[in-house]
Amino acid sequence: MLFNTYPFLFFLLFVVAVSYQLSKARKPKWLKIFLIVSSFFFYGYYEWTLVPLLITSILINFSLSLFIKSRTQQGKLFLIVGISFNLMLLGYYKYYDFFTQEILNATIFSIPPKDIILPLAISFVTFQQLGYLIDIYRRQTDKAPFTEYVLFVSFFPQLIAGPIVLYKEIAAQYKNRFDNLNTDAIASGIYLFSIGLFKKVMIADTLAVWASNGFDNPAGLNCLAAWLSTLSYTFQIYFDFSGYMDMAIGVAKMLNIDLPRNFNSPYKSLSTRDFWRRWHITLGRFLKDYLYIPLGGSRKGLPRTIVNGIIVFTLGGLWHGPAWTFVFWGLMHGIGLAAHTLWSRAEMKLPKPIAWLITFLFVTLTWVPFRAEGMDTALQIYSSLFNLSELYNIADFKKLISYISSGVISLQPSYKIPLVLTLSIFSIALPQNSYSLFMNFRPKWDRATACVILLCVSIIFLNDYTEFIYFNF
Amino acid sequence: MLKSTHFLSITLIAVLSLHIASCLVYIFAPSLYVSRQLFEYQKNKIYSASSEVETIIIGDSSGGNAINAIRYSQIANEKALNLCLTGSFGIIGSANILEKAVERFPNLHTVIIIHTLDIWGRDITKAPWWLDTYTLCPSNLLKNPLPMWRIFVSAVKYYFTTTHLKNYLYSLLSPNRTDGISKMADYISQGKKTYANSEKTISPDATLDNMRVQQENIMALKNIDKAIESHDLSVFFIHGPLYKSLADNSINYIDKIKQILPAELSNVKFISKVVSLTKAQTGDSVDHTLPAYKNKITKRYYELIKNNRHLHHSSDGL
Fold first, then answer.
1. What is the pLDDT of residues B38-72, one digit of tens each?
2. Residues of A assigned a catalytic role
3. Of B240, B316, B293, which Cα lies nearest the Cα of B62?
4. Residues A398-427: pLDDT tens digits?
5. How far apart are alpha carbons B96 and A219 in whole angstroms?
6. Which of A53, A86, A361, B264 is the most exposed place for a label (fewest CB within 10 A)?
7. CA-to-CA distance for A262 and A249, rounded, in angstroms?
8. Cis peptide bond prior to A163, omega within 30° of 0
9. Would you say the C-alpha torsion B22, B23, B28, B32 has a positive or negative sign?
């Protein structure tokens, strides 16, 4: 079920209404069971044949967690079994074809592809469960009761595309919050949800037209069109993913659960390190705690710090999808981080506007391989982006005009896309982001008016819904 | 400061009002949709034509753009009317028009049903223009292939969708955007971007072979087949014309239809031949004949009908 569809809105209305009644009746256990059933329905609505896989994964991980005792040989053994199981599951469903076709078949092998369908949410579910097993071994969390564990993994607001939640940060809420569902929480949740829905429906999906136009036809792009497409994608992915996060956090809040923050105005970053503290925060945290630090982090000297950073980001890129383009994207960020580390060690500083511009351009350029269908496309787009001589060519300018008008789908007024792109660029300068607005929420008239406008405008355009980009990862 | 319950009430009432407003727009602005204008246009044609009509052409836009009724009347030497709707009305829309025509024209002896090839794969609940036709004239011909609950859900989804409001807002922003009915073409005007002028293109690999046939659409045609049993009519079902490369790439799908339809029909004569359109003959859609070639394609359809007149029941024809 997609957040930006009518079935989800009806589902949400029903779930919140029933949960509110169960909470009022002081039946938190029943409420947890109800939320688990609702979460499986939410997952199965998209593709019910995948539900058994999710259940099996939950059952096996929960069983393994029972045998893990902190810092013992037996605990270590079961932890290794658990990590292997999860990585094999992810490896089989997500990377089998990539590994056989792109790596083994490049040598002496000739293995046919299996065309395995990627189960929805598997990347996020796997990371959450891995985090849980490792935290138990590290004695950083208590073992979860079965119902709470199932809810922790399957909780529908975060199930499909995060944020990546750790049991240790949510356990207390599952214990104490369900007998206290209240209208204040529901109101603030709806407020954030309306902002997220607007970001997705009105901004991300509008920019998608130009982004797709360019990335799907890279051969016909001149310099300006390539920049327009790349900038459109830069803002599309931000508003798509952060819109999804606002909706996820808003929906969870309606059920009185606070999910961790996942975005903090990433395009205001002044360095690549700063960017990763603001973009997909829970993924960065997971990679740091469960990969970078175990690899040695920054404790083993400068060369090792740089190598560790590059390994972590390359694997982080691969986590997004089985393609060289994602690996390349991760590698670029790893190198960017290494450059920043060297720069910082040399104690050199840039004026803030320059630092911002360099970071923003770097991030924008790295989105090219992330969005491109293949490395060929990415290279074509890069070539157009830097072919500045075309800027002075009148014929190419005509091509640009034709490109812009071809991007305007028949039902869209012609000014909509450029207007949205311009507003998106200026939105970087806004002093408060959606999460800050949500944290400072009070049910006032101005907030109610804003919520109604955002919700109504989004619903009017809801029928042209599209999937969220991060569903693919 | 508001109470949070008031905040929630305001939000819910606003969202509910939005849907009611959209429904009202649908009811009170019928000219918003050219398909609805067309339905009125074809109805008026039925009631204003002389009762001498002997042949009618019903179906969707593939038929509306392919057959020139005046030309057909000249070649066949019989009074013909083109009463095609659009694909969004589905086969139920054709049944509705057929019913009205049967009541109105006592001399009617030939009915040609032309639907585009992909009509069988369309989900009729997602294109519910047929709700209009259903509620206007329910009868045996219009016996609905869907259970009541699906009709209800479909109706609620359709009438209350905010798309009507969105389209209304867009129509205010660009009042001349939608094409209307052209009296000269006797149908909806085609767009300026066509396959013939290369402003529209189709992938050379495009195919309909992956399309799944929806049983409800077959049921709708079976209802017509059953209803005409008691009438002395020759009813033909023919595919609409299609862009040649797409037709060539869709052999499996065409074969599938050829297997299914004859087994389901007893009275409707099924002609499986697909009239293919060259690039120069294709208008603003892969199944729309360019107006300049309408007479030529009309003649081809006339010959197909003539060659298959001997069929006494459903067959794969020539």
1. 888 999 999 998 888 999 999 999 999 999 999 99
2. 320
3. B240
4. 556 655 555 443 334 456 777 888 888 888
5. 49
6. A361
7. 9
8. yes
9. positive
Which residues 64-103 in chain A show a CB within 8 A of chain B? none
B173 contact A CB<8A:
yes
Amino acid code (one letter) for B167: N
SS3 state at B106: coil
Q: Which two tokens stand for residue A228?
A: 């327009």
Beta bridge partners of B269: B236
Q: Which residue matches tokens 């580390």? A: A341
Please, which residues have CB within 8 angstroms of residue A361's CB and are 6 or more apart in sequence?
Answer: none
The two tokens of residue A90 are 């992810």
Rounded CA separation B260/B247 (Å): 18
Q: CB count, 10 Å around CB of A116? A: 12
Integer-rounded Cα radius of gyration of chain B: 21
Which residue among B2, B7, B15 sits closest to A455, beta carbon to beta carbon? B15
**pTM listed for this prediction:** 0.79
User: What do you get for the CA distance between the two ends of chain A, in Å?
Assistant: 16
**Which of A434, A274, A456 is closest to A362 using CA atoms?**
A274
Alpha-carbon gap, residue B46 to B96, rounded angstroms = 12
DSSP state of B30: G
Whether A248 and chain B come into contact, CB under 8 Å, resolves to no
CB-based contact A184:A263 (threshold 8 Å): no
DSSP bridge pairs for B260: none
Is 80 exceeded by the pLDDT of residue A35?
Answer: yes
Q: Where are the beta strands (DSSP E) in A182-239?
A: none
* CA–CA gap between residue A154 and residue A145 (Å, rounded): 14
ipTM above 0.95, yes or no: no
Structure tokens at B258: 């050829």
Sign of the dihedral through C-alpha A87, A92, A94, A96 = positive
The verdict on B184 touching A (C-beta cutoff 8 Å) is no
Is any Cβ of chain B less than 8 angstroms from the Cβ of A411?
yes
- E-state strands within chain B: 55-59, 80-82, 110-115, 181-182, 187-188, 234-239, 242-243, 269-271, 276-277
In eight-state DSSP terms, residue A92 is I
pLDDT averaged over every residue in chain A: 87
- Say if residue A272's pLDDT is above 60: yes
Rounded-to-integer distance, Cα A115 and Cα B39, Å: 46
Whether B15 sits inside 8 A of A182 (CB atoms) is: no
Kindly report the length of chain B: 318
